[in-house]
Amino acid sequence: MTQRRAQITGWGKCVPPVKLTNAALEQLVDTSDQWIVERTGMKERGISHVEVTDLAEVAAKHSLAAAGLEVTDIDLLVMATVTPEITCPSNACFLQERLGLVNAAAFDLNAACSGFVYSTATVASMIESGVAERVLVIGAEKLHFVMDYWDRNQCILFGDGAGAAVFEATTDGSGVIAHDIGADGVAGRTMVFPTFGSRGELDRQRDPAIDRLHFEGQNVFKHAVRGMAASVERALERAELTSADIDLVIPHQANQRIIEATINRLGISDDKVMLNIETHGNTSAASIPMALHDALAQGRIEPGSTIVQTAFGGGLTWGTNIMKWGDRVEPIATSEADLPPTDKSVFDLLAPNREFFAPYHDKAHLT
Ligand code: UT7
């Protein structure tokens, strides 16, 4: 009998309706549309007016409909996020209640931007070993909460959103065929959210000098290109494939130049790469499942396609999965799930953030 593997049978995404365009960023920091497009490939990103569970719920409902499954069919829920609402219960447990996944175990997985590839490696192994049958994996982030919208070095990069995928056991030869995951805690000092945790005194007030992303962009850039290319090579070797066998790469959407440099190193042509960075920015753990959704919607995945997901992120972490797609590239059903509307502008949504970080930049008079 062919080996038991994990196949993606459902997919979905949720993008907040309020957009942070490059033109809006020009009003917030000393930047230009031209600089951002040339250096990152980004033109706009979603800024969420709701909580991260709301984003995750919508993406999840679309993926369950696409898989044609009932909520009671799911036996495991994994939520990849670095922006959980609170730490206990896990965000996955919130979502389990919200969706009514009464038969599902639930846990969060934090591997920053590598969260979806780490989750895929984890749930594929659990499905292969028979621990799980039908698994819902969500990558969801509300990153704008921690960005400093006075700091042009970081605030242009990130957006909010959620992507989801349903994994099911299969023995038809398709599914996830190889993984590579890794981490470098020393290099992790290049990208730190020193918030969302138990560090420090109990009575410490939130402080704009502490509760902000520490980020060494150029350093992370170099680690990213080297790390992803080496990870893809190791995964290809394990799968006994070469880069010539790849039909589509779905990379973490951190920076178009990082993606291009990685692809060049691997000798893969540009037309085999899925990009949606222009309209979504970097959504951390949500970026690959959102790009997977868009690749299917654009007809870029065919039955039997060999697909590579690869990512790097805070930790530093990195990871790659190689999968052979199954027979179905269309959703079984669709869902009407959507976020509640909002009449807030992007400036309304970012105002609390600007107010909080202004003293750090000594720009309170400008708010
Ligand atoms: O998913 C994991 C997280 N993602 C990442 O970590 C992304 C990794 N890094 C990057 O994507 C890039 O390093 C950045 C986009 C952050 C920066 O691009 P870069 O080409 O590495 O620019 P740079 O840091 O070398 O800066 C070049 C210049 C500097 O000015 P000087 O010193 O040459 O006068 C910066 O101050 O560009 C300036 N600069 C900007 N100018 C206009 C930096 N940010 C901006 C900006 N607009 N937003």
Distance between the termini: 66 Å
Query: CATH fold name, please?
Result: Peroxisomal Thiolase, Chain A, domain 1
Kindly estimate the percentage of residues that lie in beta strands according to DSSP.
Answer: 15-25%
Radius of gyration: 20 Å
CATH superfamily: Thiolase/Chalcone synthase
Query: Helix and strand succession?
Result: EEHHEHEHEHEHEEEEHEHHHEEH
Tally of discrete structural domains:
1
Strand order of the largest sheet: 1-7-6-4-5
Low-confidence stretches: none
Ligands and ions found: oxa(dethia)-CoA
Based on Cα principal axes, name the global outline: globular
Portion of residues in helices?
A: 25-40%
CATH architecture: 3-Layer(aba) Sandwich
- Number of DSSP-assigned strands: 13
SSE layout:
Layout: E1 5-14, E2 19-21, H1 22-28, H2 33-40, E3 44-46, H3 52-67, E4 76-80, H4 91-99, E5 105-109, H5 115-128, E6 134-141, H6 152-155, E7 161-170, E8 175-183, E9 191-192, E10 214-215, H7 217-239, E11 248-251, H8 256-266, H9 277-280, H10 287-297, E12 306-313, E13 317-324, H11 346-361
Parallel strand pairs: 4-5, 4-6, 11-12
Antiparallel strand pairs: 1-7, 2-3, 6-7, 8-13, 9-10, 12-13
The site of oxa(dethia)-CoA (UT7) has 18 residues, from helix 2, helix 6 and helix 7.
Would you write up a description of this structure?
The protein has 367 residues and is α/β, with parallel strands linked by helices. It has a single domain (5-366), classed as Thiolase/Chalcone synthase (Peroxisomal Thiolase, Chain A, domain 1). It contains eleven helices and 13 strands. The strands form four sheets. The chain has a five-stranded mixed sheet, sandwiched between helices. A four-stranded mixed sheet has the order 8-13-12-11, with helices on both faces. The mean pLDDT is 96. Oxa(dethia)-CoA binds at residues 31, 35, 39-40, 113, 152-153, 156-157, 191, 217-218, 220-221, 254-255, 282, 313.
